[in-house]
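User: I'm new to structure prediction. If I give you an amino acid sequence, what do you actually give back? Let's try with this one:
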Amino acid sequence: MLKKIIREPLLHFALIGAGLFVLFAYLNPAAEEQAENSIVVTGYKIQQLSTVFQKKWQRPPTAVELKRLIDDYVVEEIYYREAIAMRMDQDDTVIRRRLRQKMEFLLTDASAAIKPTEEQLQTYLDEHSAAFAVPTRYSFRQIYVNPNRPDSAERIAAIQQQLEAGSYVKGDSTMLPETMTDQSTNQIDRTFGQGFTQPFIDMPLDSWQGPIRSGFGQHWIYLQAREAARHPTLDEVRAKVLREYEYDQRQALQREVTEKLLQKYMIRVDWPQSEAAASDAATPSE
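Assistant: Good question. You get back a string of structure tokens that encode the predicted 3D arrangement of the chain. For your 286 residues, that looks like this:
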């Protein structure tokens, strides 16, 4: 039971959120002591302004520039307080979206602080093995025949005879690659057209086979290597697994927090009459 509570994502979120508030209070010791009409520019805030300037301009600000930064911050703080006092933050779509984004960023930071174990990553890989499977890969050469040639039928017959006789054959000019090495079925199909690699599945190695039709024309294929599809080890795809695992964790945490927060509120939707009628019509009767 205790382990379940400790692993509860909402508990992690709450603890991290509390930590942020403690950190803010530590870095802004005078915040609670400020009078309503008092603005205190702390040493931390000055350092923050200087750091932002230095990152942008690749040098620290001069005394005059730092004074200008502080003055601008003071004006920004005054305008912010006056806007809040005038309730300008109410029913403002831009502000509402920005605050929602900040909440989501906080959740993202919370989930990022929870590092997965090797066992969790391996379990995630096992449960989503199809998403991380290494597809079949091929290496081959190809000879191309342009179907728009007036003698294309004769050309195809001639190439077939030359290949059977072991003669060298040069294909028609094309922007398609003559060779592809260690490429997946998806990569090859993107180049030659969907389904082009279907005959490759049972094609023998080290012999010319064809002709095979694509959207570009006719091809003879000399298959040099075939590496069957397989499931990779965790070490091979660790970065991708970690990225997908953390994304799923962020989404799960956000859903869980949202569901718990929804329980705090009584939701009422005052539909316009026409919309309400449509909503009732769409609701199955008991």
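You can read the tokens as a compact description of the fold. Here is one thing that stands out. Residues 2-114 form one domain.
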